[in-house]
Amino acid sequence: MTSSEHIPKKQKIESTEHVTQPKRKQLLINFFENSSSSIHWSGQWKHPQDRSHTYKDLDYWLHLVKLAEKAKANIFIADSLALFDVWGKGDKESNFKGPLHYGIQAPKNEPSAPVAAMAAVSKNVGFTVTVSTISEHPYHLARRLATLDHLTKGRISWNIVSSFLPSTGKQVLNGAPLPEHDSRYTKSEEYLKVIYKLLLSSWRDDAVVLDKERGVFVDTDRVREINHVGEHFNVVGPSLSEPSNQRLPVLVQAGASTKGRQFAAQHAEVVYVSALTAEALGKKIKEFKDLAETYGRGRNDIKYVASATVISGKTEEEALEKYEEIKKHADTVGAQVLFGGWTGIDLSQWEDDQELEHVENNGMKTYIENLTKFNPGKKFTKKSISEKISLGGSISALFVGTGSQIADQIEEYVDKSDVDGFNFTYAVWPQSFEDVVDYVIPELQERGLSQKEWPVEGGTFRENLNGKKGQTFVPKTHPAYNYRWSNDLTKEEFETKLENLNIK
Ligand SMILES: Cc1cc2nc3c(=O)[nH]c(=O)nc-3n(C[C@H](O)[C@H](O)[C@H](O)COP(=O)(O)O)c2cc1C
């Protein structure tokens, strides 16, 4: 057991009396999803109560959003563009049978499709959709994000990823290899700039006039071409979509490498951080805040969110029984399939006791570092890493117990790490999310650690994220701020402003 696992010992832990502390930082809660079954807890699709295989039905998403609304939580939908096809490949380039046989994040649907349906039956839940900067041209994505922002009335956020699976190249890059790790981030910088320009600089806020008397739909003096010429993209513009509620979706990122952190520290409004322990997480968050400051951003401009799973029940016994049942279905081979996708390392030929050493890789660069370089005293073998991943992942927290015990554990974790919130993933769907809603959220709310009401009822993602009515756009300290063409500037004035600020 590592310290990221929080499991009650045999004797019952007396829960401490808690006085309501409304001044405590209210945690940002996300339900972590994927348009496939069993995201992280490999093999749990076999659990008798698991219904994660119904991800392809609209009812799945409608049930999920109702749970999120009850918890006053947001929904985060992860994604990858190819199969986790490294495990068991031997000398071959890939082995697509592994993820399919073991049901490892496969088969998988497109992540943004269920969002509009969920938005129709909810009023406040925010939706983060993962889209890779290598999957489509930024011109298309700008339109897709604007569409989602319109349909959700500003409840959209974009998890910016640049892909890590080696076989993504052969599926979406006409067979070219997945570009080298750091160059993916360099390209993402330009990609994001094109998105900023299209969504923020090509339409003035008030360009759509809908003047029925004069017969003018759009005032064309308030629309301009962006004429972006770059290393990877040439885009004339204007954006095909009109300005949406937030104009720019809330930007989310999970970069952990040097390049990834630099990217996130400049652009992200929410960052997913992970570490083996709460203490290690605290160190990472502090470093992140220091880095963000060097880019002129405030220490609290970015919210930091960690991954976790909850296994709870009415009593401690019930929670522990649930955990024991889950363990029966854990799939350690499936875990190796996951590991292969994340790192590019095929464990199938390894001996059980073979130790994991640091190796450079072109996938999630820091995943191996998290286990090796950052934890010098700790050893991981094929067996131990497979077991760990099969039980919720290696760098994610696990909270087991009654609602009150878990709230204690979470409180301690937050105090040690200064984390702003959690991405709750599921072991058993929807049981794990129901555990959060039924047992954990009420306890957190009681302690002032979780919101009882949305700060801005019916507001945008950004307003609720920052708890400020009217804050639908990024603050001045964000690099996208100056890209926005506001109502007070003519086209010429706006272009002079861009020139003066050296925004090209
Ligand atoms: C909570 C969390 C969610 C992530 N979701 C995705 C995802 O859906 N798709 C993806 O391609 N990468 C995802 N990643 C991977 C990150 O984008 C990133 O590649 C990883 O954190 C390693 O950072 P690095 O690329 O800077 O080394 C996620 C990472 C974390 C911690």
UniProtKB/TrEMBL annotation:
GO molecular function: monooxygenase activity; oxidoreductase activity, acting on paired donors, with incorporation or reduction of molecular oxygen
Name of one Pfam family that matches: Bac_luciferase
Annotated keywords: Flavoprotein, FMN, Monooxygenase, Oxidoreductase
InterPro entries xref list: Diverse_substr_monoxygenases, Luciferase-like_dom, Luciferase-like_sf, NTA_MOA
Bias type Basic and acidic residues, positions: 1-17
Domain Luciferase-like span(s) in chain numbering: 57-415
Protein origin, superkingdom: Eukaryota
Region listing for Disordered, in residue ranges: 1-20
Family: Belongs to the NtaA/SnaA/DszA monooxygenase family.
Protein name: Luciferase-like domain-containing protein
Organism: Wickerhamomyces mucosus
Upper classification of the organism: Eukaryota, Fungi, Dikarya, Ascomycota, Saccharomycotina
